[in-house]
Write a structure and sequence with these properties.
Largest sheet: none
Order of helices and strands: HHHHHHHHHHH
Strand content: under 5%
Number of strands: 0
Shape: elongated
Number of helices: 11
Helix content: over 70%
Length: 288
């Protein structure tokens, strides 16, 4: 026993321990690889599985059809991967617009005086007072649904919280000594905003976009599930889950289980990616 104990002790001494930054980089790499695999799968997988095949309908999960087939013989694995890629595309576009709105309003609120600050603060409070899903449904319905309605609805409902964060960050940067020196030297507000403030906001911009993405995807899927989002002819996750509801009572559990689980895993992976990127850009925790 003593020899085994000595051997374990020596192994622990020789084996290098990863610090927090190294573990964060490793997890970030795995998360990014998983998401890239979804995108690559969406492009590489053939659309043959989306075609109807009544000879293979209602098949349970197997080696030839890992997620089973639906009532029209379509391969659920192909539909799920294509749906995830479609949700990622819609969510990324809507999130980019939303974060851009938050960046512009946050900077304007903190740099253009009290009147603009009061107006932006009022807008933030107004949008935060309405539930995201309700506002998203109203906007999407008013625009006729479809991808355009969902993208505009998500973009117009997910910027308020990030606007507050960017406003607070800009207010803190404005009080820094180097910004005060630039102002005393006669630099304009535009020059200070583009040369001093904006470079410090870019990390928060990208991290905020990744953290907002899961909310955008879930809300897109929810609106599509309720019938106000993407077209039923598109292989969206919300469409797949909505269609599967009428067949669950017949024992075809795989129609909703695998697409729903895949959506939750993708959203969780984006959450992990955003949290780790925030830790990497945080000066207090980046080198721990």
């Amino acid at each position: 026993m003593s020899a085994i104990h000595v051997l374990r002790t020596n192994i622990k001494r020789v084996r290098p321990r990863m610090n927090r930054r190294q573990r964060t980089l490793l997890v970030t790499g795995f998360a990014a690889s998983f998401l890239l695999a979804i995108v690559a799968g969406g492009f590489l997988i053939s659309d043959v599985g989306l075609a109807t095949n009544f000879d293979a309908r209602n098949l349970a999960p197997s080696l030839s059809h890992p997620f089973g087939t639906d009532w029209m013989g379509r391969d659920m694995f192909t539909r799920t991967i294509k749906g995830l890629m479609l949700s990622m595309g819609v969510g990324m576009l809507a999130t980019s617009v939303s974060v851009l709105i938050a960046l512009v309003l946050g900077m304007a609120s903190a740099t253009l005086g009290k009147v603009v600050d009061a107006a932006v603060t009022w807008l933030v409070d107004l949008f935060l007072g309405v539930p995201h899903l309700v506002a998203l449904i109203l906007i999407s319905f008013a625009l006729g649904g479809g991808a355009r309605g969902v993208i505009i609805g998500v973009a117009l409902t997910h910027w308020p919280s990030l606007t507050r964060v960017i406003r607070a960050e800009v207010m803190q940067i404005r009080s820094a000594e180097f910004v005060q020196v630039s102002g005393s030297l006669g630099r304009s507000r535009w020059w200070i905003a583009t040369r001093h403030i904006l470079p410090h906001l870019l990390p928060q911009f990208f991290v905020g976009m990744i953290l907002l993405f899961p909310h955008a995807v879930l809300h897109e899927a929810a609106v599509t599930f309720l019938g106000f989002g993407l077209s039923p002819h598109q292989p969206a996750i919300g469409v797949i889950l909505s269609e599967s509801m009428r067949y669950l009572s017949t024992g075809m559990w795989w129609l909703a289980f695998f697409p729903g689980l895949a959506l939750l895993i993708m959203v969780r992976i984006f959450d992990i990616l955003g949290d780790n990127l925030r830790m990497l850009v945080d000066p207090h925790s980046a080198h721990e």
